[in-house]
Amino acid sequence: MVPRILNLLRICGHTNMLVTSGNPKSQETLIDNRASPSQIVDYHSEDFAQLIVTKNQGNPFDVCVDLVGLEPSELCAQVIRVNGRHAKVTAFETPKARSNFFDRGATVYHISNYAYSLSDHLKWYGDQLSRIAEMLENKSITNPREENTTHGKKIVMNIY
Asked: pTM above 0.90?
């Protein structure tokens, strides 16, 4: 999923990103999908939060995209700037992360595409699938070379 997110962010014009990955296979997949080794941070690294802030020239992040929740949401809450934005695709968040996001005045975006089905707005799904199919066709995004590329916890951070 992370390579797809990276490609979608690139399509939207974002170029300055950091990605976390905890194993060599995932890191290889990220590199295969145009992430440079300097953009990848191993989440097993000592003093992980400080390391990724250092990679951002010592500045907190404007945006953090969390694809896992729980501990990664706490990491986002540690490294996001005051009034930053946090996008998450899971409902998993610790009380500590929630409190830190609140303290920083962060805007939290809950990416829950299934919500459209609650109001029987299924056309939206078809429209989104058509957009994705078009991007795959014109190679704006590509399928990763393996089916399951997660292999651990991931966070995508976008720096403006």
From this structure: no
